[in-house]
Amino acid sequence: MMAEAKEWRLDGSERFPGTTYAEVVLGPAFEQAKAELLEPMLAVNKAHLIMLREEGLLGEDEANRIAAALTVVPVARIRAEAYTGAFEDLFFRVEHELTELAGEAAGNLHLGRSRNDMGIAIYRLALREKLLKTISSALFLRQELLRFAESHADTLMIGYTHTQQAQPTTLGHYIAAVADSLDRDIKRLQAAYSGCNRSSMGAAALTTSGFTINRQRMAELLGFDGVIVNAYDAVSGADYIGEAASAVQLAAVNTGRFVQELLLWSTQEFAVLRVAAPYVQISSIMPQKRNPVSIEHMRSLLSSAFGDAQTVLTMTHNTPFGDIVDTEDDMQPYAWKALATLGSVYKLLANVIATLEISKDVLRIRAEESFATVTELADTLVREERLSFRTAHNIVSRTVRNVLEFGGTVRHISLRLLDEAALAVIGRQLTLGEEKLRRALDPQHFIEVRALQGGPNPDEVRRAIGEQRQTLHERQEWLEAAYSSARSAQQLVERTVEGWAHQFVHTEGA
């Protein structure tokens, strides 16, 4: 049933907020803030309270009264409220609640701060949590990639360049490369976390405060690694969210390239892999279909993450260098969504990888029947015949062309055809024997002799995976330390405020 046409009129509002302004901007921002920013806002309030009391800016009784109010803020009720315009935003809604609970004392909680430095701190607290969740999902995927790579260190396959068969390698070598690329993405996300995890508190509107605010203490209480020193920069800089967006974009691009190949390899024509039943869907009309829709969705979701991250950068681009908070009301949700989408793809991809069936025989036979090994034949001529590589390359290239002219395969390369090419190129026949020729064309030999660092030799692949596992372990330790630091700060703040609240209740009761 079609919706009825609606006649649009100016809303005619004479008081703040205008009906349309509330509908388009303030209402959606309030909904987002309730869901994502209420807990960080309360955390900042509690940390600021502790700092004010420690610095002697609040007396004990006043601080205890505010602490008691902070411990009973009705979070669930506020989250259930619709935006009415009675309060401009969540900040004033919470401030009103604290005033109702603590009376005039609550007004002093805002000593030496502004919605500017407070808002940025809240955004950074929310963003750092989402960065850690995405990094955790990325580490889960990398762990699974390394397991998969090690199990296929001996699985022969052809590597492609320019979409054409290039040289023999192994599936383990290929997947280890994907894991290395992912590790760099994780490293960039860690760098984004480092840029994000700094405190704006004490910057106030943009010039700090005449009160003796302890900025470093605020950073410690909120689990930040330090302060953003310049106060103007603290409320104006948006590169912390830009770093996160850029890291997401590159990670989405890198993962998307791999996902695209998985989708191609799952075709019957490539016949490289079979996606497990939990991750395919059937056709409504074609009984034979096993549609790898999980991979298709990953491809589109990665594009979505890229687009949401691009929106963050585009919105920042047209924002003057100054107070960034109001723009961030609209911008932050795109960063949150981009990170959440990327993390969800990582988790899904890890499960798909863990359950793939690989057609090892198909890959091996394809490698054995391919001309992809002839680089090693040219290398063999360099070693055995003392030819320059370019000359050896010309001889082998001419031989391959001759074989292809009569529809032959790599198995038709013979000493006779090589000698004919050699006579044309260097004016003499070769001394190469049959055994060395066949070995040079064997894809297994090809990968075994490529044992240099980073090569496909199975032992080298396993050695490299061992190093990758050590890096993975270090990144997992970093993640746990980041979580632990934030948790420890939060627990300290909660214990302190709850203790003060208990003192207030005990005093009032007496």
From TrEMBL:
GO terms (BP aspect): L-arginine biosynthetic process via ornithine
GO cellular component terms, semicolon-separated: cytosol
Subcellular location: Cytoplasm
Pathway(s) per entry: Amino-acid biosynthesis; L-arginine biosynthesis; L-arginine from L-ornithine and carbamoyl phosphate: step 3/3
Keywords: Amino-acid biosynthesis, Arginine biosynthesis, Cytoplasm, Lyase
GO molecular function, one term: argininosuccinate lyase activity
Main location: cytoplasm
Pfam family, one: Lyase_1
SUPFAM superfamilies assigned: L-aspartase-like
Domain of life: Bacteria
Key word Cytoplasm present: yes
Swiss-Prot/TrEMBL catalytic activity: 2-(N(omega)-L-arginino)succinate = fumarate + L-arginine
Family label: Belongs to the lyase 1 family. Argininosuccinate lyase subfamily.
Protein name (Swiss-Prot/TrEMBL): Argininosuccinate lyase
Organism of this sequence: Paenibacillus validus
The gene coding this protein: argH
